[in-house]
Write a structure and sequence with these properties.
Number of helices of chain A: 3
CATH topology of chain B: Four Helix Bundle (Hemerythrin (Met), subunit A)
Helix content of chain B: over 70%
Oligomer: heterodimer
Strand content of chain A: under 5%
Number of helices of chain B: 7
Number of strands of chain B: 0
Largest sheet of chain B: none
Largest interface: A-B, 44 and 47 residues
Distance between the termini of chain A: 47 Å
Number of strands of chain A: 0
Distance between the termini of chain B: 57 Å
Structural class of chain A: mainly alpha
CATH architecture of chain B: Up-down Bundle
Shape of chain A: flat
């Protein structure tokens, strides 16, 4: 049985799919600077959702899970920065 | 001092923590992320240094197909998470494994038109693209086979371990997407 603090899995999947769709739309429609920012933000949100919503391991060590999310956000931010700088 | 604990329910709710597996899994998770992080960092750098090669690569990539592949992999991760939560673990693992195979099929379909167009191009960036996505594809294929093997005889510990690795493969793809495809 899931602890009550868990986010319902269908909700996590729905949010991940929505964020993926928005990311693809942003890649096709926006100019470089807002595109970089939106894609970095959406990727960071997706990484956090995946770790918190799907990975059971995050319950065992919230510090390491937080580091995992921070690492993913760092890579997302670098990707967003490259998009904003180079188009 | 051993305090009386409901061992069976503890084993069912926290299987990963048993036998030092938690530490082993964290080491594996970070190893994967550090390796892919280094490759993606190199791709970002080469993309800045060689914009024409990046434009050439982007012209050949199929963004809608990458979106469908992402949705497939995320759906597969959903089934793996359901298996861990104890809902029909065998059938959820089978669904997760076949989701992985569907991702492999989609990626091979993408390669079928990318490879002829890109293999004639001499560029480190293109080589890195095939290295990163090919390495990730090999992970998906390998772990999907392991998932099906675990589905044969699922135990809470095995299900939790294989699902964790599957989520790492998902997470790596979520990072590949903005670095390679959405840029």
């Amino acid at each position: 049985m899931q602890p009550s603090r868990d986010i319902p899995l269908p909700l996590v999947l729905g949010a991940l799919l929505l964020a993926t769709g928005l990311g693809l739309l942003a890649a096709m429609l926006l100019s470089p600077v807002p595109r970089g920012f939106v894609i970095a933000a959406l990727t960071g949100i997706k990484a956090a959702l995946l770790v918190v919503g799907f990975m059971r391991l995050q319950r065992e060590s919230s510090m390491l899970a937080g580091a995992l999310i921070a690492y993913a956000i760092l890579l997302s931010a670098l990707a967003g920065l490259r998009i904003a700088l180079a188009g | 001092m051993n305090a009386p604990t409901p061992t069976a329910s503890l084993a069912a709710s926290r299987p990963v923590a048993e036998g030092g597996m938690e530490l082993l899994l964290w080491i594996l998770v970070w190893s994967e992320l550090v390796v892919f992080g280094a490759l993606l960092g190199a791709f970002l750098l080469l993309g800045l240094l060689d914009p024409p090669a990046l434009a050439l690569l982007h012209a050949q990539l199929d963004l809608p197909l990458a979106g469908v592949a992402t949705a497939t992999l995320l759906g597969s991760g959903f089934f793996a998470a359901r298996a861990v939560s104890g809902r029909k673990p065998r059938w959820n693992l089978v669904a997760a494994g076949f989701g992985g195979f569907a991702f492999v099929a989609l990626k091979l379909a993408a390669y079928s038109h990318e490879v002829p167009a890109l293999t004639t191009v001499e560029s480190r960036l293109v080589e890195l693209y095939f290295l990163i996505t090919g390495f990730h594809l090999a992970h998906v294929l390998f772990v999907a086979v392991i998932i099906l093997a675990v589905a044969w005889r699922p135990t809470p510990l095995r299900v939790a371990m294989v699902a964790t690795i599957w989520h790492v493969v998902d997470l790596v793809w979520l990072l590949i997407l903005p670095v390679i495809y959405l840029g």
